[in-house]
Write a structure and sequence with these properties.
Layout (H helix, E strand, L loop, with lengths): L17 H8 L5 E4 L6 E3 L2 E3 L2 E2 L33 E12 L2 E4 L4 E5 L22 E5 L5 E7 L10 E8 L7 E9 L1 H8 L18 H4 L6 E2 L2 E2 L4 E10 L1
Parallel strand pairs: 5-14, 11-12
Antiparallel strand pairs: 1-4, 1-14, 2-3, 5-6, 5-9, 7-8, 7-10, 10-11, 13-14
Length: 243
Amino acid sequence: MPSTRAPDDIPQGRLLSRREALALLGASGVVLLTDAVRAQVSSGGSQLSCVVRPQQTEGPFFVEEALDRFDIRSDPRTGQVSAGMPLQLTFKVSRLDGAACTALAGAQVDVWHSDAAGRYSDVRGSTTAGQQFLRGYQSTDQTGTARFVTIYPGAYGGRAVHVHFKIRTGAGASRAYAFTSQLYFDEAVTERVYASEPYAGQRRRWMRNAEDGLFRAGGRQLLLNPVKDAQGYAATFDIGLQV
């Protein structure tokens, strides 16, 4: 695992101004929107509860594994489970319909991230080549929900703690849309998690959000605040698409 940010791990997309957002909302095509931040955009006298969010790079470690599964902690070839703090990660995916957000069923949500030691699976030329831990996808149900069981991601050099995700509509070569970005974590939660094993044993300084160039390019709108549950932590991310 490299200790510095990979060359293609650079910001993609940006936050839009109110004028740009209005122009996009009136245009054809697909725009990423979310109701997690209640900034309001006025259009035709009505107020929209969804606002534009920043896209970010998928980085060098996305692999099209086609792993349709809810629990992504294990390597399906060996059954070995990645050690770490359990994390229930829920996506609520919506589409903009007029002035309201309605559930978007059938969207594919891919998730991938590093293990507690900061390693990604199936990295070519590394010791994890051929492994498939902490990767998978789910399709949203009729309520627009996709749920994953994973672990709290580990840290590695050059990046703040994060999870990658990709949302796609359509199937195969006919995919209508793909949006890729990253989720970040409340640092107070990371402090608590990293005080426990197996994270504490890594003895590695983890990068703060404000030190990460990608986080500075819109990460506050991609920030999770996991809450403690019976197993570990749980977090929900609301996101919408204008299709």
